[in-house]
């Protein structure tokens, strides 16, 4: 899958530009008079963009819609997770998978009138790589070159099985280089995407208003004359907006699904995040007890996952003992029964490890999830582990974990394809491996995933998952059901790999 040449399987024909008008308010979708498009799509997001400057704010997840609206990516991912053409129409690796050659379409322009050419693509990729956004860490060591106006090469320090996916999301965002020195770049994006941000109608942090781009290269992909994204973080506020008919699409809290359906909405669900324990200090640098696999295994046996799922998520999710995502090579359903809930057995393991009376541990707290943290502390107390929570400071929960200040923590984290999981959670230099745990077995599996044949890489991914489950590197509880709903006048497809649907998937129902 990684090695074979992937070329465009469908042509994205540019149609004649249409000059469109849209209402200026935030009313939900209605049909245009000619029936070709909806007038306005009104969505709700729980997050606002930190910056439209791709070097500082490039991000996907709950913020993907903002960036999809104004920027194109080099590639695109469909609702089945397959890679498709976008600004790049063809792409091909060299024999050792260290050079990717991209062929660009020649009919895309930025909203400032400049062409989307190879020089602009190189400048954007360099800004992403050298910037401060979350994607910068995935681009370390990459070099880019414009071979001619429509050809770009990406040279890697080593094969990267996730590169095509990264170029289809935040790591492939392309912006006009002429905007990079604009003092308003954070709030006035200049891209080649299907919409243009209306800065006069936008209220930063609250409401973002967009108008269709009349010069977009794929007019058929634009399903609405205008787009509004309202920011709401509270489930009650989102539900009230739905009941009042003030939205066409929104993330749905699991506890409000029945009321949302009663309002005539439909929804789709997927499981992207896992919740559970990250046992970080596996070498015992800060807390010596965690160096013993028996202690980590005992922690896994301490949790009644079914009861936690019911208490924390009203049963909306699936219990798991794996950080790897279903549907990929690493995942093995049988591993979800590795550690049965057995407090007495957990106590016995702690005694074998030299802790018959248990021990104490300090973990970070976060007010939003205090009820969850209390349940975690209760179940750990049942096997003799006394938890003290410490407030790391406002907005410092994640920073305190990665510093690192704590040997173990509760965490809610998105699950990813195998290679991303290995490089984000498990490799010695992984972001979520703050104590830099290194094991020869893990290194060997990751090397095989990177350099082996497809079959060898698949086997290595499965072996890696088996190893970290058996060794108790984590103690996941469950995968959380995330739901997104739309009004009776709207249709969409839920991405299997992102918590917010692609803008390109929304359409008026008729």
What does this structure look like?
Residues 1-29 form the signal peptide. Belongs to the bacterial solute-binding protein 5 family. It comes from Microbacterium terrae. The protein has 510 residues and is α+β, with helices and mostly antiparallel strands. It has two domains: 38-265 and 487-508, D-Maltodextrin-Binding Protein, domain 2 (3-Layer(aba) Sandwich); 271-480, Roll (Dipeptide-binding Protein, domain 3), CATH 3.10.105. It has helices spanning 54-57, 64-70, 118-130, 163-167, 235-243, 257-262, 293-301, 305-313, 343-352, 370-381, 397-402, 418-426, 440-451, 454-471; strands spanning 6-7, 38-45, 72-73, 75-77, 83-85, 88-93, 99-104, 143-148, 151-155, 173-174, 195-197, 207-212, 224-231, 249-252, 266-279, 317-319, 359-364, 385-390, 408-414, 474-486, 490-491, 507-508. Strands 1-6-7-9-8 form a five-stranded antiparallel sheet, covered by helices on one side. Strands 14, 15, 16, 19 and 20 form a five-stranded antiparallel sheet that branches. A hairpin with a 5-residue loop joins strand 4 and strand 5. Mean pLDDT is 91; it is low at 1-27 and 31-35.
Task: Furnish the topology, listing elements before pairings.
Layout: E1 6-7, E2 38-45, H1 54-57, H2 64-70, E3 72-73, E4 75-77, E5 83-85, E6 88-93, E7 99-104, H3 118-130, E8 143-148, E9 151-155, H4 163-167, E10 173-174, E11 195-197, E12 207-212, E13 224-231, H5 235-243, E14 249-252, H6 257-262, E15 266-279, H7 293-301, H8 305-313, E16 317-319, H9 343-352, E17 359-364, H10 370-381, E18 385-390, H11 397-402, E19 408-414, H12 418-426, H13 440-451, H14 454-471, E20 474-486, E21 490-491, E22 507-508
Parallel strand pairs: 2-13, 17-18
Antiparallel strand pairs: 1-6, 3-10, 4-5, 6-7, 7-9, 8-9, 11-12, 12-13, 14-20, 15-19, 15-20, 16-20, 21-22
Pfam family, one: SBP_bac_5
InterPro entries: Peptide/Ni-bd, SBP_5, SBP_5_dom
Family: Belongs to the bacterial solute-binding protein 5 family.
């Amino acid at each position: 899958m990684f090695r074979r040449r992937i070329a465009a399987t469908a042509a994205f024909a540019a149609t004649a530009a249409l000059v469109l008008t849209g209402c200026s308010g935030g009313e939900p979708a209605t049909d245009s008079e000619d029936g070709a498009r909806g007038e306005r799509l009104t969505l709700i997001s729980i997050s606002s963009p930190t910056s439209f400057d791709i070097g500082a704010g490039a991000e996907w997840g709950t913020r993907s819609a903002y960036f999809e609206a104004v920027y194109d990516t080099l590639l695109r991912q469909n609702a089945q997770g397959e890679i498709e053409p976008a600004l790049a129409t063809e792409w091909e690796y060299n024999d050792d998978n260290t050079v990717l050659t991209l062929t660009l379409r020649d009919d895309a322009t930025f909203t400032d009138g400049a062409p989307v050419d190879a020089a602009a693509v190189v400048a954007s990729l360099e800004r992403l790589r050298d910037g401060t956004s979350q994607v910068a860490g995935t681009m370390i060591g990459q070099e880019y070159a414009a071979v001619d106006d429509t050809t770009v090469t990406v040279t890697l320090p080593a094969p990267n099985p996730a590169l095509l996916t990264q170029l289809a999301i935040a790591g492939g965002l392309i912006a006009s280089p002429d905007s990079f020195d604009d003092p308003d770049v954070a709030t006035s994006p200049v891209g080649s995407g299907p919409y243009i941000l209306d800065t006069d109608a936008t209220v930063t942090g609250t409401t973002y208003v967009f108008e269709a781009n009349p010069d977009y290269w794929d007019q058929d992909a634009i399903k609405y004359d205008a787009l509004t994204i309202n920011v709401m973080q509270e489930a009650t506020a989102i539900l009230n907006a739905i009941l009042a008919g003030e939205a066409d699409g929104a993330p749905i809290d699991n506890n409000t699904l029945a009321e949302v359906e009663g309002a005539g909405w439909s929804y789709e669900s997927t499981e992207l995040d896992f919740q559970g324990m990250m046992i970080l200090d596996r070498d015992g640098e800060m807390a010596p007890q965690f160096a013993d696999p028996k202690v980590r295994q005992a922690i896994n046996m301490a949790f009644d996952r079914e009861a936690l799922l019911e208490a924390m998520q009203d049963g909306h999710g699936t219990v798991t003992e794996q950080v790897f995502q279903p549907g990929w090579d690493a995942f093995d359903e049988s591993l979800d029964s590795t550690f049965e809930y057995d407090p007495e057995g957990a106590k016995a393991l702690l005694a074998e490890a030299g802790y018959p009376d248990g021990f104490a541990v300090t973990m970070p707290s976060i007010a939003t999830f205090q009820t969850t943290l209390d349940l975690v502390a209760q179940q750990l107390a049942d096997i003799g582990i006394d938890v003290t929570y410490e407030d790391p400071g406002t907005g410092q929960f994640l920073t305190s974990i990665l510093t690192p200040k704590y040997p173990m923590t509760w965490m809610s984290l998105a699950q990813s394809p195998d290679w991303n999981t290995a490089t984000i959670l498990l490799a010695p230099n992984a972001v979520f491996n703050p104590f830099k745990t290194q094991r020869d077995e893990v290194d060997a599996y990751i090397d095989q995933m990177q350099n082996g044949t497809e079959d060898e890489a698949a086997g290595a991914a499965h072996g890696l998952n088996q190893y970290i489950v058996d060794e108790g590197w984590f103690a996941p509880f469950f995968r959380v059901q995330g739901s997104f709903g739309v009004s009776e006048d709207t249709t969409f497809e839920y991405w299997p790999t992102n918590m917010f649907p692609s803008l390109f998937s929304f359409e008026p129902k008729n």
